[in-house]
Amino acid sequence: MTETAGKPSTRRSAKNRGITVERIYTTEGVHPYDEVTWEKRDVVQQNWKTGATIFEQRGVEFPEFWSANASTIVTTKYFRGAVGTPEREQGLKQLIDRVVLTYVKAGKDHGYFATPADAEIFEHELTYALLHQVFSFNSPVWFNVGTKSPQQVSACFILSVDDSMDSILNWYKEEGFIFKGGSGAGLNLSRIRSSKELLSSGGTASGPVSFMRGADASAGTIKSGGATRRAAKMVVLDVDHPDIEEFVETKAREEDKIRALRDAGFDMDLGGADIVSVQYQNANNSVRVSDEFMRAVEDGTDFGLTSRKDGSVISTVDARELMGKIAKAAWECADPGIQYDDTINDWHTNPETGRITASNPCSEYMSLDNSSCNLASLNLLKFLRDDDTFDVATFQKVAELVITAMDISICFADFPTEPIGETTRDYRQLGIGYANLGALLMATGHGYDSDGGRALAASITSLLTGAAYKRSAELAAVVGPYAGYARNADAHKRVMRKHQAANDQVRTLHTMDKDIHAAATKAWDAVITLGEKNGYRNAQASVLAPTGTIGFMMDCDTTGIEPDFSLVKFKKLVGGGSMQIVNLTIPRALKKLGYAQETVEAIVEYIADKGHVIDAPGLKTEHYEVFDTAMGARSISPMGHVRMMAATQPFLSGAISKTVNLPEDATVEEIEDVYIQGWKLGLKALAVYRDNCKVGQPLSDGGSTAKDAKDAKDAKTEAAEPEKVVEYRPLRRRLPKRRTSQTTSFAVGGAEGYLTSGTYDDGELGEIFLKFGKQGSTLAGLMDAFSIAISIALQHGVPLETYVEKFTNLRFEPAGMTDDPDVRMAQSIMDYVFRRLALDYLDFETRSFMGIHTAEERARQLETGSYAAAPNEDDEDLEDELETYSQSAAPSSKKADAPVEEHAAEVTSGAGAASAREVSGQIHSSAELLEKFQGKTADAPMCMTCGTKMRPAGSCYVCEGCGSTSGCS
Question: pTM to 2 decimals?
Answer without folding.
Answer: 0.77
